[in-house]
């Protein structure tokens, strides 16, 4: 118990000394995450848990997306650099303007990547996949083909 106490004390002191204690500490144990329906910019089936900030506003944010097996996101781009960590499952990520499963790279649990604003990319999930995104808001998605955008009304 003593090593845990000393570790927490050192973490608290070093964080305060670095001037990083601008907001209260927050912890999010995995089993306690509050999953909600994903953002309207993603196809139905995605779930989302916001961990920090508001991804729709300017400023830092961290969120997790949970995709069911086979979930697909068609080619799109973002107005900010995207930072992604695969927490669970496998995300198959491809670059370009055309969805092509054979051109993707498998990112397994623990993988991390980032790509600059405007980079066109797409992906699909193998098994239930949890992806953590962090960066500067607002987080936006613009689909290469507007017909792929789930926010587009269907006749």
What does this structure look like?
The chain has 155 residues and is mainly β. The protein contains 1 helix and 9 strands, in the order αβββββββββ. The protein has one helix spanning 2-17, and strands at residues 36-37, 47-52, 59-67, 72-77, 82-95, 105-108, 112-115, 121-137, 142-143. Strands 1, 2, 3, 4, 5, 6, 7, 8 and 9 form a 9-stranded antiparallel β-sheet that branches. The N and C termini lie far apart (62 Å).
Number of helices: 1
Terminal Cα span: 62 Å
Tell me, rounded to a whole number, the average pLDDT.
88
Alpha-carbon Rg, integer = 18 Å
- Portion of residues in beta strands equals 35-45%
> Can you count the beta strands?
9
Low-pLDDT sequence parts? 1-21
Shape: globular
What are the secondary-structure elements, in order, as H or E?
Answer: HEEEEEEEEE
Class by SSE composition? mainly beta
Helix content: 10-25%
The largest sheet, given as strand count, sense and whether it forms a barrel, is: 9 strands, antiparallel
């Amino acid at each position: 118990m003593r090593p845990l106490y000393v570790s927490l004390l050192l973490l608290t002191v070093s964080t305060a000394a670095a001037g990083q204690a601008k907001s209260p500490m927050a912890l999010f144990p995995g089993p306690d995450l509050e999953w909600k329906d994903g953002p309207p910019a993603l196809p139905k089936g995605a779930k989302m848990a916001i961990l920090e900030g508001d991804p729709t506003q300017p400023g830092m944010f961290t969120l997790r997306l949970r995709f069911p097996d086979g979930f697909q996101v068609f080619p799109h781009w973002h107005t900010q650099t995207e930072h992604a960590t695969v927490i669970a499952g496998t995300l198959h990520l491809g670059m370009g303007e055309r969805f092509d499963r054979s051109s993707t790279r498998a990112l397994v649990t623990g993988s991390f990547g980032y790509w600059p604003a405007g980079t066109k990319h797409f992906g699909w999930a193998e098994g239930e996949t949890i992806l953590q995104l962090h960066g500067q808001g607002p987080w936006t998605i613009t689909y290469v083909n507007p017909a792929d955008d789930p926010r587009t009304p269907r006749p």
